[in-house]
C-alpha cells in the first residue's frame, strides 16, 4: 500500500524535526513564554490585569504582541499571516485560517466579521495547498444572547427573528462561497447552551454543500457525554441524505465554565465525569470515522500524543493511505509542534489553526490558550521539556 510507514519509525520525541522552523532566539522566547504561563497564578490574574490596563489605556498591546500574540497568532491581518503560512507550508503543514475576533454584539461587527471570513476564503483559494481550511464561530456572526434564546426554544420577537435571518444569511454566504471555490470551512463548537443551534445550522449547510465532497465540517466536543452519540446520529443523517459528513473532533475547551454553569443553574453537567471518559469517547469517535472513511472526512484536532499515536496505528492497521484526503491531524499554532511536524514529515495530513486579528480583539482566544493550558495536566510541562531538550541539543 503506497504511503505507508511503519508506526515504529514515527517518534513524537524528535525535537530537531519539531523545532526546525524556529531560530535559537525564537525557541528561547517560546521557552520563557511557556514558563510564565505555566504559572497558574499569573495565568489567572494576567487576563484581569491586561483588561484593566487596556481600560486605563496603558500601553500593554505592545507587550502582548511581542509575547502571547507572537506565539499563538499569525498576524493582525490576512496578509500579515503570509510568512507564518509559508513557513508552515515549507514544512508540509497546512493552515486553518482563523479570523479570531470574539465577543462582539453589534450587527455592523457581525457583517465585518463575515466579510473577513469571506476574505480568508479568497486567500485560501490563492494558495489552496498551504491553506486547506478556513474556520468560523457562529457566535462571531450572531449575538450570543440571541443564540441562547433560540437554543432555549423561546419564541423570538419580530426584530430577533429578523436578526437571526441576517445571521443565517451570513453563514449561508460563507458556506456557499466555500462550496463555489471548493474551499473547505470548519465551524467551531462553543458552549453547550448554544451548541444545538450551531449543530442544526451545520447539518443544514452540510446537507446543501457536502453532496459530493466535504466542504462544511462541524465540531464534536467529546468531553460532552452525548457527543459520540451525536456523531453517530449525524452520520445516519448523512447516509440517508447522501452527503459526506465533515467532522472536527475535539475534546472541548469550556470545561470549567460548563461545570460552573451547571452547578449554578442546577442541571446535570453535560461534561464527562472524568478525563478517562473524555479520552475514551475521543478515541472511539476517531475509530468510528475510520470505520466510515469513505463517507466521513475528519480532523483529529488534538494535542494529545496518545490519541495521535492511536490514530496513526489504526491508519496503518487498516491499510489506509497515510495522506488519505479524508483524514487530518490538527493542532494550534505555537503548540505541540513535536506532534505536527513529526507527523507531517511522515506524510500525514497536518493542519494548524493560524488565528489572526487585531491584538485587542483576539485577547479572548489568547486568554483561553493561557487559561486552558494551566488547567490541562502536563501540557505546559510537556511543551517546556521539549523546548528545553531542543535548546540543549542545539547547545544554546
Ligand atoms: C485544531 C484545534 C481546533 C479546536 N477547536 C475547538 C472548538 O471548535 N471548540 C472547542 O471547544 N475546542 C476546540 N479546541 C480545543 C480542544 O477542545 C481542547 O480544549 C484542547 O485541544 C485540549 O485537548 P487535547 O485533546 O488537545 O488534549 P488533552 O490534554 O488530552 O485533553 C485536555 C482536555 O480533556 C478534557 N478534560 C480534561 N480534564 C477532564 C475531566 N476531568 N473530565 C472530563 N474531561 C476532561 C478537556 O476537554 C480538556 O480541554 C480545538 C483544538 C485544536 C487543536
Radius of gyration: 20 Å
Shape estimate: globular
What is the annotated CATH architecture?
A: Alpha-Beta Barrel
CATH class: Alpha Beta
Could you say which small molecules are bound to this protein? flavin-adenine dinucleotide
At the third CATH level, what is the topology name? TIM Barrel
- Give the low-confidence spans: 1-6
Quick one: how many beta strands?
8
Which H/E pattern describes the elements? HHHHHEHEHHEHEHEHHEHEHEHH
Helix content: 55-70%
Task: Give the gist of this structure.
This protein has helices at 15-18, 24-37, 40-55, 61-72, 78-90, 107-126, 144-151, 158-180, 192-209, 227-241, 255-265, 275-291, 305-317, 337-345, 363-375, 379-394, and strands spanning 94-99, 133-136, 185-187, 216-221, 245-250, 296-301, 327-332, 350-356. The chain is an alpha/beta fold and 396 residues long.
What does this structure look like?
This protein has 396 residues and is of the alpha/beta class. The protein has a single domain (73-359), classed as TIM Barrel, CATH 3.20.20.220. It contains 16 helices and eight strands. An eight-stranded parallel beta barrel has the order 1-2-3-4-5-6-7-8, surrounded by seven helices. Bound molecules: flavin-adenine dinucleotide. Residues 188-189, 219, 221, 223, 250-255, 271-272, 274-275, 278, 301-304, 330-332, 353, 372, 376, 379 line the site of flavin-adenine dinucleotide.
Question: What features would you highlight for this structure?
Answer:
single chain; 396 residues; alpha/beta; TIM Barrel; globular; disordered N terminus; binds flavin-adenine dinucleotide
